Amino acid sequence: MDILVCVKRVPMVGGTIVLTADGQDVDTRMSGFTVSPHEECAVEEAVRITEREGGSVTVLTLGPPEAAEQLRDMLALGAHRGVLLETDGREWGPVATAAAIAEAVEELGTTTFPLVFFGTESADTGGYQVGVRVAHALRRPCVTGIKRLEVAGGRLRAWRERGGAQELFDVALPAAVSVREGINLPRYPSLPGRLRARRAEITVLKPRWRADGLRKTGLRVPASSARRAQVLGHGIDAVPALLQVLDEIGVLP
Amino acid sequence: MTVLCLLERAGDGFAETSLRALSRGSSCAVRAGADLTAVALEAGEPGLAGAALAELAGLGVAELCVVPSGVLAAYAPAAWARTLHQLMASDSAIAVIAAATDRGNEVLAHLGALSGLPVAANCVSFAPAGDGSWKLVRQRWAGSLLEEAILDESCALLTVSTDVSTDAVSADSGTAVAREGPAVRILSPEFEEADLLVVATESAGSGGGVSLATARVVVGGGRGVGGPDGFAALEELAGLLGGVVGVSRVVTSQGWRPHRQQVGQTGTKISPELYLACGISGAIQHMAGCLSAKHIVVVNTDPDAPIVSRAEYAVIGDLSEVIPALVAAIRAATAD
Question: By the CB < 8 Å criterion, does A108 face chain B?
């Protein structure tokens, strides 16, 4: 089965988010980039399916030329082919992104992708919609938030957590699926995988920019409860004070 | 002009997250001079309690739209969106609002695709700007960053972050209908075949025990726990406090603990009375999962770890010494 996985390049942020001087973007000069976590799991899931049943995994991303780096990371995990929808670095909204992906899928040949994977939401902008929009454009059913799936006999069975229970979706292929981290534990890339990824050719397409009716005017870090914790002490000497705090909060048995 | 608000059911009433979204929608409807219409598409067993209807009226809902029993017997995201899309047109909606739950975000994404309109997911505030556009603030990075935006469309599609509080609804907005409850309107949506291809079947729960999302106490463990064996002491402490263990992403990506115990942006959001975070540095992706914790207490060897500036109290020290000593102290204190 030939599977397409759509991934997003996102900044690797740690303990704090630093903004650019104009407050329009996350300052990435000191951070690296990575693939949004849900989508890394989507690639792993796709690679496992093709290892079992044959076929190929194509990873696609929309982003600046540097996003080829994230495609190579995914090729190193076992994906076979990379497609870059190259932008000039501007932030693309979900409507424009989904339209560009759908057009690219048509261009690459829809029928060759019975399964198209997404992450449920990207780590950075968190729009929760690109996968659903692409599914509509390709006229195929879509399931989202998936933490477990089975593919057999031209059908997809997919489970999503809901409260303490699970809901099951059973749909015919072709279908679109957005997954969540936890569906699997992605492998570490092997050395041969890295070498193959470095040499792999990446298909570059130039999508058409569209304006979005939702316009970002600025970003800000929330006025958080940033404060200095009251230090109760060091090591086991602090245990009596800690016990008293737990008592005041009212959680002791 | 109408503000439509999609409600999810819980027991014989509505989900708390939906009611909070509704209270936000109510403020906007008042400001825009629009009617407030609630839409509940679940079959719902048991039926709705009178108190639940009165609560809607109190929030200013003039009308509650439902579908006849037998239509949409199970959750079908595209069919829910189709129903809202038809209501949007018939009622001249200026906004469609849902809670930013799995279902709310999913249904509004479908609605966005059907209508060609953008969707602003996980909003913490929004209001009509007076010129037909909307000013809003939405979460990025699961709440670690806020985006200010302008939405300039005929109808605003919004989901409301589950982290927001209830908006104070002006006392007089609902009193006229509060006595009678909202009028109930039975919809007859028309579906296309594609709308009913994805339908949920409830399957059994994954087992009992205290759930991480609703636990009153969460004892967190991170890289500082050192390995899979280090969690026994945390489990023991959590058991004593009637809570559960939660972990950071590094712990699950190392395979030390299963992903269902992960707290954070790509794991579970928690809202305990106490989050006791041990050996966790406090990356923003982790902190996004505990925005709603009432009290955060940390045990960490590094006084400069980011989590220390987010916590109320800190013990600077090695958790492998502090936690067993705390367990012993609790046992001694409660043995009296």
Answer: no
Number of compact structural domains in chain A: 1
The segments of chain A whose pLDDT lies below 50 read none
Q: Which CATH number fits domain B217-335: 2.60.40.10, 3.30.428.10, 3.10.129.10, 3.40.50.1220?
A: 3.40.50.1220
Q: Which of A181, A231, A235 sits opposite B318 (nearest CB)?
A: A235
What is the spatial distance between Cα B293 and Cα B311, in angstroms, rounded to a whole number? 10
pLDDT, tens only, B239-251: 999 999 999 999 9
Task: Flag if B109 and A128 touch (Cβ within 8 Å).
Answer: yes
- How many residues belong to chain A? 253
What ipTM was assigned to the predicted interfaces of this complex? 0.96
Distance between B124 CA and the closest CA of chain A, angstroms: 11
pLDDT, tens digit (0-9, with 9 covering 90-100), for B119-152: 999 999 999 998 989 999 999 999 999 999 999 9
Shortest distance between the Cα of A238 and any Cα of chain B, in A, equals 6
Q: How far apart are CA A162 and CA A168, in angstroms?
A: 10
DSSP characters for B29-77? HHHHT-EEEEEE----SSPPPHHHHHHHHHTT--EEEE--TTTT-S--H
Inform me whether the C-beta atom of residue A173 falls under 8 Å from chain B C-beta atoms: no
To which H or E segment does residue B135 belong? strand B134-140
CB contact under 8 A, B144 and A222: yes
Global pTM reads: 0.94
Q: How far apart are the first and last CA of chain B?
A: 66
Compute φ and ψ for A130, nearest 5 degrees. -60, -45
Assigned CATH for B2-196: 3.40.50.620
CB B126 within 8 A of CB B24: yes
